[in-house]
Amino acid sequence: MITNRIKEIREIKGYTQIDLASMVQVSRQTIISLEKGSYNPTLELAFKISIALDANINDIFMMEDEK
Q1: DSSP type of residue 5
Q2: 22 confidence band (pLDDT: 50, 70, 90)
Q3: What pLDDT, on the 0 to 100 scale, is given for residue 1?
Q4: What is the span of the domain harbouring residue 19?
Q5: 37 and 4 in contact (C-beta within 8 Å)?
């Protein structure tokens, strides 16, 4: 299972969901789905988010152990 800190980091940076969506060229609904954990991004989108948030990809996305 992949978890993420998109919402936390986005809010620290002062971006709205619309801002981030525009920066990575996806819909606001995609950002909502990512933040809720109901959608896992493609590798390309994960890198775009990392660049947009100026954060290491490993600080945004984490692999959780399945038990």
Answers
A1: -
A2: very high
A3: 86
A4: 2-63
A5: yes
Q: Bridge partners of 62?
A: 3
Q: Give the torsion through C-alpha atoms of 58, 15, 19, 3, to 10 deg.
A: 30
Q: Could you tell me if 33 and 43 are in contact, meaning their C-beta atoms sit under 8 angstroms apart?
A: no
- CA–CA gap between residue 52 and residue 57 (Å, rounded): 11
The pLDDT value recorded for residue 66 is: 53
How far apart (Å, rounded) are the C-alpha atoms in residues 54 and 67?
32
Name the pTM for this structure: 0.92
Residue 11: which CATH number? 1.10.260.40
| pLDDT computed for residue 38 by the predictor | 96
Residue with tokens 């969901």: 17
Total domain count for the chain? 1
